[in-house]
Specification:
The protein is mainly α and 198 residues long. Helix content is 81%, strand content 0%. Helix 1 packs antiparallel against helix 2. The longest helix has 28 residues. The termini are far apart.
Amino acid sequence: MTLPNKVTLARLVLALVTFACLWSQRPGLYVAAFVVCAVAVATDWVDGWLARRRGETSPFGAIADPLADKVLVIGCLVAFVRDPNVEVPSWAVFLIIVRELIIGGLRGLAALQGVLIAAARGGKWKMGVQSAVVLILLALVAGRSHGVLPPPESGDPESWTLSAIAVAVSLWSGAIYLYNGRQVLRRSWNAQKTAERR
């Protein structure tokens, strides 16, 4: 296994640790969740840099890298929904998950056709923005749970605004993927129609 892929797998483990810390809803572990999440976000840049520097790009890395990103972001958002320190709307998390499922399906269709859809520029921007959103929400959770920051106001406009930003960039990048993969979709539909005629 290449070094970049090992870093990617380490980020997946860090994502699970971050989720566990958040799910516990213990103030002390909120700080740990922030630190671990920050390290995980940093490794997203590191594994890509290593892969390019060492010339060790691989199909596994192309799939595992965005998968680790999704586990990190979605895991945190799911934990936020039940956390009393922030009011992340469930509809926002639902839309983000639906987007990821649709793009995952598109990648699956492409793989059946021998095409590999790697992370595009829009996907990288999405991950960057969502990572920033998650880290800010983690800071709010940690600060509010320790009394450093005041408790959320009614409706928690900070959390809602951050959630809306995460949803907007997710849908935007998803639309780019679907547009760029329109030929994959057309070939899939045509193949299905041919099979039905037989």
